[in-house]
Design brief:
By secondary structure, this protein is mainly α. The chain has helices at 2-14, 17-38, 43-56, 79-82, 91-111, 117-136, 141-156, 160-174, 190-206, 214-235, 246-253, 262-273, 285-301, 311-323, 331-345, 354-362, 368-384. Belongs to the glycosyltransferase 87 family.
């Protein structure tokens, strides 16, 4: 009797969204304190913060400043305004607030998914470890994940103005946001949506010019383009911490950094777009949700700028894909999901022996492999499944 009561209490607790949010807050605090104790691991936040200071002083945003931080900034000029409010606080306070904003943004975005509460709760728990990995590096990727999800859910809710706002906010920050246009075909009023996109694209382009000089911002956009091109070449090397992608798997397995991105991207884009021809499936909630999952995974596994911490984006797509599968689950779906848990989200942890982690998973970009396989399987499902069939039980809330 006591065992049953305890089990019921635990189930109720772990299904409570407020409890999950408190756990995420706690993880943000733990990650921040741990990195502060390490002394130099908050390098990403320093890059973000100095983006605003450098813009204010009209300095090149895309040069190395070794006296201030390691590595380089690769975010758009608009990001200098996004990070500006955090610079008003002492560094440690700003760091905590940055982590909390990322957590809350992602938490809210997932809550807007058209899924039953039990499935939303499951998505929260599935991605928690990947979220922690991102928090340790003070990355903006949780918010980028949220922007992509909200672009979809706002289109679902016919809030095209806010959807366009999010798509171009994400684009002018990190380019990844542009993938929100993948949901264009699900927009009800396309002419109005296009007008909103043009409005926000122009506004976000010129907005930094009101705070800094137009000539300076125009030069920043040119410098940003050069920076991203150089980064693509740098990431393709066999020793980069990035290139955790499908291309990276091939380059590093074959030990050939000259293997180009374009054949993979071309094939990926064709396969990504093929389900669009199934016009009759657009009315299906599950079909559209599959496109959301596909977009989240595609964005990461086909980018040679992806690193381990970027996988909060892809793994959220994996979680959504898994939760909208028809029950009972097929053996291959269970197998792919377990494979993803073990090799993707557990890869940076002590669950995987350090020797295997360093010499195999990191060396050959194997963290990308389960997500890539799931994306291929998901693409196959989108091409052959009749999502409108009454036999398909999506368990989605309408």
């Amino acid at each position: 009797m006591n065992y049953n009561k305890t089990q019921q209490l635990l189930e109720k607790l772990f299904s409570n969204r407020s409890f999950i949010l408190s756990i995420w807050f706690l993880l943000a605090v733990i990650a921040t304190l741990k990195q502060l104790k390490a002394g130099e691991e908050h390098n990403n936040y320093l890059i973000f913060k100095y983006t605003f200071f450098h813009a204010k002083d009209h300095l090149n945003l895309y040069l190395k400043y070794p006296a201030e931080y390691g590595d380089m900034n690769h975010y758009g000029p608009l990001f200098s305004l996004v990070i500006a409010p955090f610079t008003l606080f002492p560094k440690y306070v700003g760091m905590f607030l940055w982590q909390i904003v990322n957590v809350v943004t992602l938490y809210y975005a997932i809550s807007t998914l058209p899924l039953k509460n039990s499935k939303i709760v499951a998505v929260y728990w599935i991605i928690t470890n990947e979220l922690l990995s991102s928090l340790f590096s003070f990355q903006i990727n949780p918010s980028i994940t949220a922007i992509i999800i909200l672009s979809y859910t706002m289109i679902e809710r016919k809030n095209n103005f806010f959807a366009a706002f999010l798509i171009f906010l994400g684009t002018y920050i990190k380019l990844y946001g542009i993938v929100g246009l993948a949901f264009f075909f699900f927009v009800k009023n396309k002419p109005k949506f296009i007008a909103y996109c043009i409005f926000w694209a122009v506004l976000f382009f010129i907005l930094p010019m009101f705070f800094f000089s137009p000539d300076y911002i125009i030069q920043c956009y040119k410098d940003w383009s050069v920076s991203l091109s150089a980064k693509q070449l740098e990431n393709a090397t066999l020793v980069s911490w990035q290139d955790v992608s499908i291309m990276g798997i091939f380059r590093r397995t074959l030990q050939d950094p000259s293997i180009p991105n374009w054949p993979f991207l071309l094939g990926g884009i064709i396969l990504f777009c093929l389900p669009y021809v199934r016009l009759g499936q657009y009315k299906s909630n599950s079909f559209r949700m599959m496109y959301l999952a596909s977009t989240l995974i595609f964005t990461v596994v086909f980018s040679n700028s992806s690193e381990s911490q970027t996988y909060i984006i892809a793994f959220t797509g994996v979680a959504i894909w898994f939760m909208i599968q028809q029950r009972p689950l097929k053996t291959e779906i269970i197998g792919l999901f377990i494979f993803a848990i073990l090799l993707t989200t557990m890869a940076p942890t002590d669950f995987i022996p350090k020797y295997i982690r360093d010499n195999y998973i990191m060396r050959y970009s194997l963290k990308a492999l389960p997500c890539a396989l799931i994306w291929l399987y998901l693409s196959y499902q989108m091409l052959v499944t009749d999502f409108k069939s009454k036999r398909i039980e999506t368990e989605l809330e309408i």
